[in-house]
From TrEMBL:
Source taxonomy: Bacteria, Bacillati, Bacillota, Clostridia, Peptostreptococcales
Record-given protein name: Uncharacterized protein
Organism: Romboutsia ilealis
């Protein structure tokens, strides 16, 4: 499991969503084809190595995709076991993937499949996918990080500003889970990339 600080992405999100964001933003992802075992000790070491403090005054917000699998579910449980009420687990998805559902419907469907999910998840959201292209191409073009385009949704979660009720929002840590692509130029990547290039409303730029 890897953790990557991406302060420049926070600036990108502020630009494309026209919001003010606070705290520190990280990506968390697994190596491709890795059989990494998720446990609390490994996660604790991972965050300590990045000098990330999590307590009642320094909450952690973990953003994950609605498209759960066993790995993501174990990751959620491990974070919750490790940080208890000091971690907020947030599931997000794109509206066009769930056209006939709202966020509560999506969460209810997941709760029927994963035990105790309702006591683990703090928030859920569905957002428009119009910023997908700018986010995932920003990672690929400037950092050579190739994520599944749908993973852009977990990065966008920070703009919802769930942390604004905190006394000091600058003490917040945001961690977005993303899925890496096993081959950076597969059909899905190329399709999203071309859509970004032809998007008339695109305001993407590299000047950060």
């Amino acid at each position: 499991m890897n953790l990557l600080p991406i302060p420049w992405m926070k600036l990108k999100l502020e630009s494309i969503y026209n919001v003010n964001l606070y705290g520190n933003l990280y990506l968390i992802f697994n190596d491709i084809n890795s059989n990494y075992r998720i446990d609390t000790n490994s996660l604790n070491t991972l965050l300590e190595n990045h000098n990330i403090l999590v307590d009642e005054f320094h909450p952690l917000y973990l953003y994950l995709p609605m498209e759960l699998n066993n790995q993501i579910y174990k990751l959620m449980i491990s974070f919750k076991d490790l940080y208890h009420e000091n971690v907020y687990i947030i599931l997000g998805g794109y509206k066009d993937i769930y056209p006939n559902l709202n966020k509560l419907d999506c969460l209810a469907n997941l709760c029927s499949k994963y035990e105790n999910l309702d006591s683990i998840v703090s928030y859920s959201y569905l957002i428009d996918s119009d910023k997908t292209y700018e986010i995932f191409t920003s990672l690929s073009d400037t950092q050579n990080i190739y994520i599944n385009p749908i993973s852009s949704c977990s990065i966008s979660g920070i703009v919802l500003n769930y942390h604004m009720n905190q006394l000091n929002p600058n003490n917040v840590t945001h961690v977005s889970f993303v899925n890496l692509m096993d081959y950076p130029y597969n059909d899905s990547f190329i399709d999203y990339y071309l859509k970004r290039l032809t998007n008339n409303n695109n305001n993407f730029n590299y000047n950060f």
